[in-house]
Design a protein that fits this description.
Residues 4-283 form the Aspartate/glutamate/uridylate kinase domain. This protein is an alpha/beta fold. It has helices at residues 19-38, 50-66, 75-100, 136-144, 172-180, 211-221, 253-261, 271-283, 297-300, and strands spanning 4-10, 41-47, 107-109, 113-115, 128-134, 148-152, 156-161, 168-169, 184-186, 193-198, 201-204, 226-231, 236-238, 246-248, 250-252, 288-293, 307-310.
């Protein structure tokens, strides 16, 4: 029996929000991922990096405040740093967990770039909030630099960047080769490093890519059998948070589109996950999407939990 090829997308809760939280969180995450390996899944893993890239960006900004001549790292470099930092913890924790179970399997992190369109509408209306809270004075300095800021009433100002749609995964052939060799691959962390093609060069963009969007693209580019999106809830819900909240065990693409049109999924939480599922299934109609929480994934792959979306 051939192994099921799957992309697993990890959310914030799988990684924690601080360095120490991440150390603890990835050990739990590694157990869930190892369960999938034991169940004969061939894994390609992608992950969130929101808290991590914000922490790195804040550190770079604070360094600039202390050392006036220091040139702060651009957003694309912060994204690259976060891929290495998060990937390092995931691959080492997963490697150790697999060895504890008697499984010897290479686990590798690939620094991954993703091309974006410089004319994407997202660059004209940045919406992705990053970094620390700033005073009005600091916010004005950011605006003078050409950056966008957004006020959070009562808390201060924060920088906002564009979240363009992914076009191509630059390192896709490297990812495909390692996956074909039955290695565990960690790629496209934080949505990938957004870059713009300039002839033969790739120029980093001041942007971030939605990690769910890249998970769907990665799964379709690899022609995976499944896309597993791990989040904070065990199911996708209709009327989430209301008295008549109902867990959805199965969905079709058509049903998911109807629920989107009805405003059932919140922007920034479940909506991008459903959109990623639709994008993947429209390219790989024989595929399957499973949305569930980390602590339910072992039951979910047996059909005992989670929401399954099909074409």
């Amino acid at each position: 029996m051939s192994k099921k090829r799957v992309v697993v997308s990890l959310g914030h809760d799988a990684l924690g929000y601080t360095t120490t939280e991440q150390w603890d969180a990835v050990k739990v995450t590694a157990k869930a991922l190892a369960d999938l390996v034991e169940a004969d899944y061939q894994l390609t893993i992608t992950h969130s990096n929101g808290p991590q890239v914000s922490m790195i960006h804040k550190a770079m900004t604070e360094l600039r405040r202390v050392y006036i001549d220091y040139t702060p790292a651009p957003m694309c470099v912060c994204s690259a740093m976060s891929q290495g930092y998060v990937g390092y913890d995931i691959q080492n924790s997963l490697r150790a967990e697999l060895l504890d179970r008697g499984i010897s399997k290479p686990v590798s992190t690939i620094l991954t770039q993703v091309t974006v369109d410089p004319y994407d509408e997202a660059f004209y209306e940045p919406t992705k909030v990053i970094g620390r809270y700033m005073s009005k004075e600091d916010a004005e300095i950011e605006v003078k630099k050409g950056n966008y800021v957004k006020e959070d009433p009562g808390k201060g100002f924060r920088r906002v960047v564009a979240a363009p749609k992914p076009i191509d995964i630059v390192e896709i052939e490297a990812i495909r080769a390692l996956a074909a060799a039955d290695q565990v691959v960690i790629a496209c962390g934080g949505g990938g490093i957004p870059v713009i093609e300039q002839k033969h060069a790739l120029k980093g963009a001041s942007a971030v890519i939605e990690k769910d969007a890249i998970a769907g693209k990665l799964a379709s580019d690899l022609s995976c059998d499944e896309l597993i999106i791990l989040t904070t809830v065990p199911y996708v819900y209709k009327n989430f948070g209301k008295e008549d909240q109902a867990a959805l065990e199965t969905l079709t693409v058509a049903e998911a589109k109807d629920l989107i049109a009805a405003g059932q999924f919140e922007e920034g939480t479940m909506l991008p996950k459903i959109e990623a599922a639709i994008s993947y299934l429209e390219k790989v109609p024989a595929g399957k999407v499973l949305i569930t929480s980390m602590d339910h994934v072992k039951d979910a792959i047996k059909g005992k939990a989670g929401t399954v979306i099909t074409a």
